[in-house]
Here is the input.
Amino acid sequence: MFFTKGHGTGNDFVVLPDPDGTYALTPALVAALCDRRRGIGADGVLHVVRSAKHPDAAGHAADAEWFMDYWNADGSLAEMCGNGVRVFARYLVTHGLADPAPDGLPIATRAGVVHAVIDEHRIAVRMNAPVITGGSAAVTGTRRLDGVAVDCGNPHLVCALAGPLDELDLSVAPGYDPAVFPSGVNVEFTVAGAAVEGADRHVHMRVHERGSGETMSCGSGALAVGAVALREAGLSAGAVAVDVPGGRLTVTRTADDRWWLAGPAVLVASGEVDPAALPGAVTEGAE
Ligand SMILES: N[C@@H](CCC[C@H](N)C(=O)O)C(=O)O
Here is the structure.
Protein backbone atom coordinates (compact mmCIF):
# COMPACT_ATOMS: atom_id res chain seq x y z
CA MET A 1 0.00 0.00 0.00
CA PHE A 2 1.34 3.42 -0.92
CA PHE A 3 1.08 6.11 1.71
CA THR A 4 2.05 9.68 2.48
CA LYS A 5 2.66 11.01 5.98
CA GLY A 6 1.52 14.52 6.79
CA HIS A 7 0.51 16.74 9.67
CA GLY A 8 -1.25 19.94 10.60
CA THR A 9 0.27 21.58 13.68
CA GLY A 10 1.56 18.18 14.79
CA ASN A 11 -1.76 16.35 14.39
CA ASP A 12 -0.37 13.61 12.15
CA PHE A 13 -1.94 11.32 9.61
CA VAL A 14 -1.23 8.42 7.33
CA VAL A 15 -2.70 9.39 3.97
CA LEU A 16 -3.82 6.35 1.95
CA PRO A 17 -4.60 7.10 -1.70
CA ASP A 18 -7.28 4.77 -3.04
CA PRO A 19 -9.19 6.83 -5.65
CA ASP A 20 -11.43 4.00 -6.82
CA GLY A 21 -12.21 2.62 -3.39
CA THR A 22 -10.59 -0.78 -3.74
CA TYR A 23 -9.49 -0.98 -0.08
CA ALA A 24 -11.94 -2.26 2.51
CA LEU A 25 -10.13 -0.75 5.50
CA THR A 26 -10.66 -2.46 8.83
CA PRO A 27 -10.21 -1.12 12.38
CA ALA A 28 -7.35 -3.59 12.89
CA LEU A 29 -5.47 -2.42 9.80
CA VAL A 30 -5.94 1.26 10.69
CA ALA A 31 -4.78 0.70 14.28
CA ALA A 32 -1.73 -1.21 13.00
CA LEU A 33 -0.81 1.57 10.54
CA CYS A 34 -1.11 4.14 13.36
CA ASP A 35 1.01 2.11 15.81
CA ARG A 36 3.94 4.40 16.62
CA ARG A 37 6.42 1.61 17.27
CA ARG A 38 5.40 -1.21 14.97
CA GLY A 39 3.58 0.67 12.21
CA ILE A 40 3.98 4.06 10.53
CA GLY A 41 2.54 5.93 13.49
CA ALA A 42 -0.18 8.59 13.38
CA ASP A 43 -3.19 10.08 15.14
CA GLY A 44 -5.40 8.86 12.32
CA VAL A 45 -5.76 7.69 8.73
CA LEU A 46 -7.02 9.81 5.83
CA HIS A 47 -8.36 7.42 3.20
CA VAL A 48 -8.44 9.33 -0.10
CA VAL A 49 -11.32 8.00 -2.16
CA ARG A 50 -13.69 9.42 -4.76
CA SER A 51 -17.04 10.25 -3.18
CA ALA A 52 -18.83 8.25 -5.87
CA LYS A 53 -16.86 5.16 -4.85
CA HIS A 54 -17.65 5.18 -1.13
CA PRO A 55 -21.04 4.35 0.37
CA ASP A 56 -20.69 7.03 3.10
CA ALA A 57 -20.18 9.81 0.54
CA ALA A 58 -22.00 8.83 -2.62
CA GLY A 59 -24.69 11.42 -1.82
CA HIS A 60 -22.03 14.17 -2.01
CA ALA A 61 -20.53 13.06 -5.32
CA ALA A 62 -22.19 15.88 -7.28
CA ASP A 63 -20.73 18.51 -4.92
CA ALA A 64 -17.33 17.08 -4.00
CA GLU A 65 -15.25 14.68 -6.09
CA TRP A 66 -13.18 13.56 -3.09
CA PHE A 67 -14.19 12.03 0.23
CA MET A 68 -12.01 12.20 3.33
CA ASP A 69 -12.73 8.80 4.86
CA TYR A 70 -11.34 9.59 8.32
CA TRP A 71 -10.31 6.96 10.89
CA ASN A 72 -8.96 7.53 14.40
CA ALA A 73 -5.80 5.75 15.58
CA ASP A 74 -7.82 3.13 17.45
CA GLY A 75 -9.64 2.16 14.26
CA SER A 76 -12.87 4.04 15.00
CA LEU A 77 -14.50 6.28 12.41
CA ALA A 78 -15.12 9.99 12.94
CA GLU A 79 -17.39 12.45 11.22
CA MET A 80 -14.95 15.34 10.98
CA CYS A 81 -11.27 16.16 11.30
CA GLY A 82 -10.36 19.81 10.77
CA ASN A 83 -6.61 19.27 10.56
CA GLY A 84 -7.22 16.17 8.48
CA VAL A 85 -9.16 18.17 5.87
CA ARG A 86 -6.28 20.59 5.57
CA VAL A 87 -3.71 17.81 5.10
CA PHE A 88 -6.10 16.03 2.73
CA ALA A 89 -6.41 19.18 0.58
CA ARG A 90 -2.63 19.57 0.55
CA TYR A 91 -2.33 15.97 -0.62
CA LEU A 92 -4.90 16.34 -3.43
CA VAL A 93 -3.29 19.46 -4.86
CA THR A 94 0.32 18.32 -4.45
CA HIS A 95 -0.44 15.06 -6.24
CA GLY A 96 -2.43 16.66 -9.05
CA LEU A 97 -5.74 15.10 -8.04
CA ALA A 98 -7.47 18.47 -7.68
CA ASP A 99 -6.86 22.11 -8.55
CA PRO A 100 -6.93 24.76 -5.86
CA ALA A 101 -10.21 26.60 -6.42
CA PRO A 102 -10.25 30.29 -5.39
CA ASP A 103 -13.64 29.82 -3.77
CA GLY A 104 -12.51 26.63 -2.05
CA LEU A 105 -11.85 23.04 -3.02
CA PRO A 106 -14.88 20.99 -1.91
CA ILE A 107 -14.11 17.93 0.22
CA ALA A 108 -16.77 15.51 1.44
CA THR A 109 -16.67 14.30 5.04
CA ARG A 110 -19.13 12.29 7.13
CA ALA A 111 -20.30 15.65 8.50
CA GLY A 112 -20.96 17.14 5.05
CA VAL A 113 -18.96 19.05 2.47
CA VAL A 114 -16.34 21.61 3.54
CA HIS A 115 -14.18 23.88 1.37
CA ALA A 116 -10.40 24.32 1.51
CA VAL A 117 -8.55 27.42 0.30
CA ILE A 118 -4.90 26.63 -0.25
CA ASP A 119 -1.77 28.73 -0.28
CA GLU A 120 1.87 27.82 -0.05
CA HIS A 121 2.08 27.68 3.73
CA ARG A 122 -1.44 27.72 5.09
CA ILE A 123 -4.68 26.01 4.32
CA ALA A 124 -7.94 27.54 5.48
CA VAL A 125 -11.07 25.43 5.58
CA ARG A 126 -14.57 26.83 5.58
CA MET A 127 -16.11 24.56 8.17
CA ASN A 128 -19.73 23.91 8.95
CA ALA A 129 -20.92 26.24 11.70
CA PRO A 130 -20.24 24.85 15.18
CA VAL A 131 -23.33 24.47 17.36
CA ILE A 132 -23.16 25.05 21.11
CA THR A 133 -25.53 22.48 22.54
CA GLY A 134 -25.33 23.02 26.30
CA GLY A 135 -23.24 22.31 29.35
CA SER A 136 -21.57 19.19 30.71
CA ALA A 137 -18.46 18.30 32.69
CA ALA A 138 -15.19 16.37 32.35
CA VAL A 139 -13.23 14.62 35.07
CA THR A 140 -9.44 14.55 34.90
CA GLY A 141 -7.47 13.20 37.84
CA THR A 142 -9.29 14.43 40.92
CA ARG A 143 -10.74 17.49 39.18
CA ARG A 144 -14.23 17.92 37.83
CA LEU A 145 -14.37 20.72 35.28
CA ASP A 146 -17.50 22.30 33.89
CA GLY A 147 -17.53 22.63 30.15
CA VAL A 148 -19.49 23.64 27.07
CA ALA A 149 -20.66 20.98 24.62
CA VAL A 150 -20.10 21.91 20.99
CA ASP A 151 -21.15 19.99 17.90
CA CYS A 152 -18.66 20.51 15.07
CA GLY A 153 -20.03 17.56 13.13
CA ASN A 154 -18.10 15.57 15.73
CA PRO A 155 -18.63 16.02 19.48
CA HIS A 156 -16.55 18.33 21.67
CA LEU A 157 -16.50 19.45 25.29
CA VAL A 158 -14.61 22.69 25.98
CA CYS A 159 -13.45 23.11 29.59
CA ALA A 160 -11.83 26.36 30.71
CA LEU A 161 -9.23 26.24 33.50
CA ALA A 162 -7.86 28.92 35.76
CA GLY A 163 -4.50 27.19 36.25
CA PRO A 164 -1.72 26.06 33.91
CA LEU A 165 -2.49 23.44 31.28
CA ASP A 166 0.74 21.53 31.80
CA GLU A 167 -0.49 20.30 35.18
CA LEU A 168 -3.06 18.07 33.49
CA ASP A 169 -2.35 14.39 33.03
CA LEU A 170 -3.99 13.55 29.72
CA SER A 171 -2.35 10.13 29.45
CA VAL A 172 -5.64 8.95 30.95
CA ALA A 173 -8.87 9.65 29.08
CA PRO A 174 -11.01 12.27 30.86
CA GLY A 175 -14.32 11.08 32.24
CA TYR A 176 -17.50 12.46 30.66
CA ASP A 177 -21.24 12.00 30.82
CA PRO A 178 -22.24 9.24 28.37
CA ALA A 179 -25.84 10.44 28.50
CA VAL A 180 -24.68 13.70 26.87
CA PHE A 181 -22.07 12.08 24.64
CA PRO A 182 -23.32 8.59 23.78
CA SER A 183 -20.68 8.20 21.04
CA GLY A 184 -17.79 9.57 23.10
CA VAL A 185 -16.30 13.05 23.02
CA ASN A 186 -13.17 15.03 22.26
CA VAL A 187 -12.28 17.10 25.34
CA GLU A 188 -10.50 20.45 25.03
CA PHE A 189 -8.91 22.17 28.03
CA THR A 190 -8.27 25.89 27.67
CA VAL A 191 -6.59 28.82 29.38
CA ALA A 192 -6.96 32.39 28.16
CA GLY A 193 -3.79 33.85 26.64
CA ALA A 194 -2.35 37.37 26.44
CA ALA A 195 -3.44 39.50 23.49
CA VAL A 196 -1.88 38.64 20.11
CA GLU A 197 -1.94 40.73 16.94
CA GLY A 198 -4.69 39.91 14.49
CA ALA A 199 -6.93 38.11 16.99
CA ASP A 200 -9.83 39.28 19.11
CA ARG A 201 -9.20 36.44 21.52
CA HIS A 202 -6.20 34.21 22.29
CA VAL A 203 -6.57 30.81 23.92
CA HIS A 204 -4.15 28.03 24.85
CA MET A 205 -5.54 24.53 24.41
CA ARG A 206 -4.70 20.92 25.10
CA VAL A 207 -6.93 18.16 23.83
CA HIS A 208 -7.72 14.54 24.52
CA GLU A 209 -9.22 13.13 21.33
CA ARG A 210 -11.78 10.40 21.15
CA GLY A 211 -10.06 7.43 19.53
CA SER A 212 -6.55 8.89 19.50
CA GLY A 213 -5.64 10.08 23.03
CA GLU A 214 -3.79 13.32 23.64
CA THR A 215 -2.71 14.86 20.35
CA MET A 216 -0.61 17.91 19.55
CA SER A 217 -3.54 19.61 17.88
CA CYS A 218 -7.18 19.18 16.90
CA GLY A 219 -8.71 21.41 14.24
CA SER A 220 -12.35 20.73 15.04
CA GLY A 221 -11.42 21.15 18.72
CA ALA A 222 -9.95 24.57 17.92
CA LEU A 223 -13.17 25.44 16.09
CA ALA A 224 -15.17 24.47 19.18
CA VAL A 225 -12.85 26.54 21.39
CA GLY A 226 -13.14 29.49 19.00
CA ALA A 227 -16.94 29.30 19.08
CA VAL A 228 -16.97 29.32 22.88
CA ALA A 229 -14.41 32.16 23.10
CA LEU A 230 -16.36 34.39 20.70
CA ARG A 231 -19.61 33.69 22.50
CA GLU A 232 -18.06 34.50 25.87
CA ALA A 233 -16.68 37.74 24.45
CA GLY A 234 -20.14 38.63 23.15
CA LEU A 235 -18.81 38.78 19.58
CA SER A 236 -20.91 37.68 16.63
CA ALA A 237 -17.83 37.87 14.38
CA GLY A 238 -14.10 37.88 15.01
CA ALA A 239 -10.87 35.88 15.08
CA VAL A 240 -9.50 33.62 17.80
CA ALA A 241 -5.86 32.47 17.91
CA VAL A 242 -5.76 28.97 19.37
CA ASP A 243 -2.32 27.82 20.52
CA VAL A 244 -1.96 24.05 20.72
CA PRO A 245 1.17 22.09 21.66
CA GLY A 246 1.96 21.75 17.93
CA GLY A 247 1.56 25.38 16.88
CA ARG A 248 -1.15 27.94 16.19
CA LEU A 249 -4.53 27.61 14.51
CA THR A 250 -6.81 30.53 13.76
CA VAL A 251 -10.58 30.35 13.90
CA THR A 252 -12.52 33.15 12.25
CA ARG A 253 -16.23 33.82 12.15
CA THR A 254 -17.13 36.36 9.48
CA ALA A 255 -19.97 38.86 9.61
CA ASP A 256 -21.92 36.68 7.15
CA ASP A 257 -21.53 33.70 9.52
CA ARG A 258 -18.83 31.76 7.73
CA TRP A 259 -16.46 29.82 9.97
CA TRP A 260 -12.85 29.37 8.92
CA LEU A 261 -10.14 27.20 10.42
CA ALA A 262 -6.63 28.09 9.22
CA GLY A 263 -3.10 26.87 9.82
CA PRO A 264 -0.21 25.02 8.24
CA ALA A 265 -0.55 21.60 6.59
CA VAL A 266 2.59 19.73 5.60
CA LEU A 267 3.39 16.49 3.75
CA VAL A 268 6.64 15.03 5.07
CA ALA A 269 7.21 11.59 3.53
CA SER A 270 5.86 9.02 1.11
CA GLY A 271 6.49 5.32 0.82
CA GLU A 272 5.09 1.84 0.67
CA VAL A 273 3.95 -0.21 3.64
CA ASP A 274 3.63 -3.98 3.70
CA PRO A 275 0.44 -4.83 5.63
CA ALA A 276 1.81 -8.33 6.25
CA ALA A 277 4.63 -6.80 8.31
CA LEU A 278 2.31 -4.80 10.56
CA PRO A 279 1.37 -5.86 14.11
CA GLY A 280 -0.94 -8.83 13.96
CA ALA A 281 0.04 -9.41 10.29
CA VAL A 282 -3.01 -7.46 9.22
CA THR A 283 -3.74 -8.29 5.61
CA GLU A 284 -7.50 -8.16 5.56
CA GLY A 285 -8.68 -4.96 3.90
CA ALA A 286 -5.42 -4.25 2.10
CA GLU A 287 -5.60 -5.61 -1.41
N1 LIG B 1 -7.88 15.72 15.06
C1 LIG B 1 -9.09 15.96 14.41
C2 LIG B 1 -10.32 15.30 14.98
C3 LIG B 1 -10.29 13.81 14.68
C4 LIG B 1 -11.56 13.10 15.05
C5 LIG B 1 -11.80 13.02 16.53
N2 LIG B 1 -10.78 12.29 17.23
C6 LIG B 1 -13.18 12.37 16.76
O1 LIG B 1 -13.26 11.17 17.04
O2 LIG B 1 -14.18 13.08 16.64
C7 LIG B 1 -9.29 17.41 14.04
O3 LIG B 1 -8.29 18.04 13.67
O4 LIG B 1 -10.41 17.89 13.99
Remarks:
- Helices lie at 27-34, 82-94, 219-232.
